[in-house]
Design brief:
Blueprint (H helix, E strand, L loop, with lengths): L2 H6 L27 H8 L14 H14 L3 E5 L2 H12 L5 E5 L4 H9 L6 E5 L2 H7 L4 E7 L11 H10 L3 E5 L4 H4 L9 E5 L13 E5 L1 H9 L1 H5 L5 H33 L4 E5 L9 H7 L6 E6 L4 H10 L4 E2 L9 E3 L1 H4 L2 H6 L6 E5 L5 H14 L3
Parallel strand pairs: 2-3, 2-4, 4-5, 5-6, 10-11
Antiparallel strand pairs: 1-7, 6-7, 8-9, 9-12, 11-12
């Protein structure tokens, strides 16, 4: 199926929509049945039958169908947050005594969650590459978890190589694909077992939604939906599902604009004397650019630069002088945002991830690129003042 058709029309012409231009939002917390026997049968199949909000409902189900189709997966399950999806997914695949291998830098709270699992007897190890993975793997290793591009550094992982390596060693692979969205990268087609997303970012697209999703084969997603999803209670609301559906309608247009503006800003920064390096896989100078072109069809506008400083004070001064980049976490909305891990991230996590003090993350929004470039130029000039 065509991605633009999936985003805009999949499931929206079905009878239950009743011809409404926006699919209905089912606000009810529960559904009733004609007989006790019907209720009993539905409860046993609550991932597919409408019983109670904590299971699923028609609005959430439509969002899930669209996301599964975009990722070329059999099934998707939406959660109330990205971390809801990540924590439930990892939990569904491990037991006490198991080990998780983490490849490259990943989202900070994911690392924090893996540390939290230690009190339940689940350990983890971070490695920089597959060679180190061979040394770190254990008989108890169950999962290889990674992102591509990686967290903050935006390094590229050769997904086909990684999934082949993991399969040979009997590991399941889980990949966070939030950066690229399902439009620009489809990891399931390259051998990844489960894909997770924060829907709060580009998919939602307007900084008014918190949500997450896991996508993959039914044999892995359905047990998770019936157990971890239900027990953790991180259910997506139908109102948030409606925002996901609306965000998907404009996702292809927005991502094209994000890509254009992000690359223009990155190219400007790459040539600035106050910038040590720019980590954007869409730049030809990026070490992983060739691999990125092979496994991705486009580039989002989230990237980092490393200022030529080791001073947190100078990093803060640079950020405070920006006028068009708002200071805040998250990304993927209309507004451009700036954040610096050295000022906001737990120090032990920053060190574990190998993030330098001078690293600054930019989320280039949909404002004119020239305006953003001028803003950055003035801030860089004033950084040492």
């Amino acid at each position: 199926m065509d991605d633009e058709w999936i985003c805009g029309r999949l499931g929206e012409d079905e009878p239950w929509v009743l011809g409404a231009v926006n699919p209905p939002v089912f606000e009810n917390s529960l559904f009733t049945f004609e007989t006790a026997e019907e209720l009993g049968a539905a409860v046993k199949d609550e991932d597919e039958r409408y019983v109670y909000w904590r299971g699923t409902n028609p609005t959430v189900d439509l969002a899930q169908r669209k996301l599964a189709a975009l990722e070329r997966g059999e099934r998707a399950k939406c959660f109330g947050s990205g971390m809801g999806a990540i924590s439930a997914t990892i939990s569904s695949l491990v037991s006490a005594g198991d080990h998780v291998l983490v490849l490259g830098a990943v989202y900070g709270p994911t690392t924090q969650f893996l540390r939290y699992l230690e009190k339940f007897g689940v350990s983890h190890t971070h490695v920089d590459d597959l060679a180190a993975g061979d040394s770190a793997i254990r008989p108890s290793t169950r999962i290889l978890y990674f992102e591509s591009p990686s967290y903050m550094a935006y390094q590229i992982v050769d997904i086909t190589e990684v999934t082949a390596w993991a399969r040979e060693r009997g590991l399941l692979t889980v990949m966070d694909n939030t950066w690229s969205t399902p439009l620009f990268q489809k990891p399931l087609t390259m051998g990844v077992d489960l894909v997770v997303h924060s829907l709060s970012k580009y998919v939602g697209g307007h900084s008014d939604l918190v949500g997450g999703v896991v996508v993959g084969p039914s044999r892995l997603v359905r047990p998770l939906a019936l157990q971890e999803y239900q027990l953790y209670g991180a259910a997506m609301s139908p109102h948030d599902a409606a925002k996901v559906i609306k965000g998907l309608r404009t996702l292809p247009v927005r991502m094209a604009a994000h890509q254009e503006r992000g690359l223009a800003v990155a190219a400007f920064l790459e040539g600035h004397p106050a910038v040590r390096e720019v980590n954007h896989p869409g730049l030809p100078s990026h070490p992983g650019h060739a691999v990125a072109l092979r496994q991705m069809s486009g580039f989002s506008s989230l990237f980092s630069l490393v200022l030529d400083t080791e001073s947190r004070e100078q990093v803060g001064r640079f950020i405070n002088q920006l006028r068009h980049f708002r200071i805040g976490v998250s990304w993927g909305g209309f507004e451009s945002l700036v954040n610096a891990p050295a000022l906001t991230t737990e120090e032990s996590v920053r060190v574990t991830m190998g993030i330098p003090v001078g690293l600054v993350r930019l989320s280039v929004g949909l404002e004119p690129a020239d305006t953003l470039i001028k803003d950055l130029g003035l801030a860089l000039e004033g950084m040492s003042a």
